[in-house]
Amino acid sequence: MLSPNPLPLLFALLLCLPLAIVFTVTTTPEPTAISSASVAANDDPVTGYASVAAAHNGPMHKPTEEPPPPPPPPKIKNSTATNSAEGRPSTSTAAATAQVDPKGTPGIESLSPSRDKIGPRKTTLPPPPRMKNATAAAAAPRPPPQPASYDDPADDAFFQVASRASAKAKEPRKVAFMFLTTGPLPLAGLWEMFFNNTPKDLYNIYIHADPSGHYHHSPFRGVFANRVIPSSKRALRATPTLISAARRLLASALVGDPGNYMFALLSPSCIPLHSFNFTRDVLTRSNKSFIEILDDEPGAFDRWAARGRDAMLPEVRFEDFRVGSQFWALKRQHARLVVRDVTLWSKFKLPCVRWDTCYPEENYFPTLLSMHDRRGCVPATLTHVDWWGRYDGHPRTYRAHQVGPDLIRRLRSDRPRYGDEHPTNGSVLVRNGRSHPFLFARKFEPKASKPLMAIADDVIFKD
């Protein structure tokens, strides 16, 4: 047997070496699938871990190119009506324009499908914050019942008689104190002291009281006994009945005594700020009425349109409409004018459709006097009232513990607001030198009667 030759064996080994290298290279596993998955999920460690596991699973899981969109939400037939039912405007349009980065990068709402795919989205607004003021937060009360007509044939006949009363008062000139109330006069004790020891031929008292009040005994005694006018009827806020009540008082005073020269309307919460003699002198020496007449008040248009946008036309144009205090003092000629009026009453007697801006008694008298005899009026009220910071339709009420000499002196020292004084250049108020004294003040609570009577002789009636 021949010994093997090493050369052929070496040659055969060299021929097989390239095949071994090729086989080794083609069977080495690729690491690129795992490293690329890890890089793609680098922002979320949980997602990155799942991606690596998927790469290890290899061909057992078929990769997806894009996740399927979520199912669309149920359709809303009228999203505006849905949100508006809660008393707030709809915000579905704002919700549809979700925040998206202008470069194309998803923003806050990036996980939601685009608006083109699912349409606008309903957004629920948070509930309104609770109001600390329980009065303001409470629902507005319903307006008083409105009759079909405020015409009263008995009133019409009575007013015609009163309008024919003498225009000139007999001497001595008297003051008609007219109280418009729905019940007893809680400050009657103070008024008794006011009229005490005063000659009866210098004044008269007239009371318009709600006849629906039932009392075992008459609540009006002393100087107020038998002073309720027979034509009294029920009077309600936000209705022309307050105008009618004041007109009945004027008619009763015109017919009742030809000596009545000045007619002062008062509320049950009013008090005198001076003695009777001082009060009478101011009123009877004037040849003008004292009634607040304001022509540029905020909210005047809403008051004018309270019965309907054009309901006051053509008799009362908006430029002729005026605002003023409910309480005034009219001279005899103007009292006759009020009871004789038919034209303006035909508009102011209409029921209001906007009762929250309906204050007929604060508009009828200033408008009527302004249209007929503006120069015959001092455009200011002599009844002090504090409206500062009040938005509920009621002025400040003075409590018993607040009554004292300092309060009376402060109320006396205030100056009336005159309707013909207007700011110039937006800041400077032009005054004409007038300064009539306040004769009355309101509102005082019933419990204030005793402390008021305690300082009456030494403070209130000491001029």
Report on this model:
- The protein is 33% helix and 8% strand.
- It is an alpha/beta fold and 463 residues long.
- The strands form 4 sheets. The chain has a 4-stranded mixed beta sheet. A 3-stranded mixed beta sheet has the order 4-11-8. The protein has a two-stranded parallel sheet with strand order 5-7.
- β9 (423-424) and β10 form a beta hairpin.
- α2 runs antiparallel to α3 (45-57) and α8 crosses α10.
Structural class: alpha/beta
Low-confidence stretches: 21-141
Proportion of residues in helical segments: 25-40%
Tell me the CATH topology of the domain at 153-424 and 434-460.
Answer: Spore Coat Polysaccharide Biosynthesis Protein SpsA, Chain A
Order of helices and strands: HHHHHHHHEHEHEEHEHEHHHEEHEEEHH
The rounded distance between the terminal residues' Cα atoms is: 162 Å
Overall spatial form: globular
Strand content: 5-15%
The count of helical stretches stands at: 18
Record field, number of beta strands: 11
Radius of gyration: 43 Å
Strand count, sense and barrel status of the largest sheet are: 4 strands, mixed
* Mean pLDDT across all amino acids: 77
Which architecture of the domain at 153-424 and 434-460 would the CATH scheme give at its second level? Alpha-Beta Complex
CATH class of the domain at 153-424 and 434-460: Alpha Beta
Spatial sequence of strands, sheet with the most strands: 2-1-3-6
Signal peptide: 1-24
Protein name: Glycosyltransferase BC10
Biased composition (Pro residues): 66-75
Keywords: Glycoprotein, Glycosyltransferase, Membrane, Signal, Transferase
